[in-house]
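go over this chain:
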Amino acid sequence: MHEKNIQSAGKSIKEAKKVLIMIHGRGANARDILGLSAHLNVSDYALLAPEATNNTWYPYSFMAAPEANEPWLSSALKLLKDLVDEVTEQGITTENIYFLGFSQGACMSLEFVTRNAKKWGGVVAFTGGLIGDKIYQQNYSGNFNGTPIFIGTGNPDSHVPIERVNESVSILQKMNAEVHLQVYDGRPHSISPEEIEEANRLIFN
């Protein structure tokens, strides 16, 4: 199960009014995703990046049956829940907590906020969708109350089918998220400068 290993950068939580939780992808680490902050308009944020044990949040594809990815998936979701609780206990409201992830980290970001829908500061998912061999609607509850969510994805993408991205967008919108989906035809499984620009314009403005 995941050990607690939270890397940080930016302002301290006591100094910052906003917190960005950054979630790395499979095979990467917390320092990798924190490095992306140099390109984001988050100089006033406290940046927190949990690191997955063995550098992966769960062993199989995000479109595998959830039980195949247990107990790692539940452990990862609990790690995020505990981190959010620690941040709010220090006086940061959920309206000022943001999430950003790439690939497996984007899936984790979307899965966590949709299971705990409320007014968050914003969410950036660089190529990701809700987790499971199918959509488990019963896992999702709450109301995003207009939370802005940016999802950028390539089409086709080697890991994340556009159909699952569209299904995820549909659920997020039904739960009152303000979703901005940008599909980049032929883009490889990566983060493009255009996506970073959109994230800054839509979420970190």
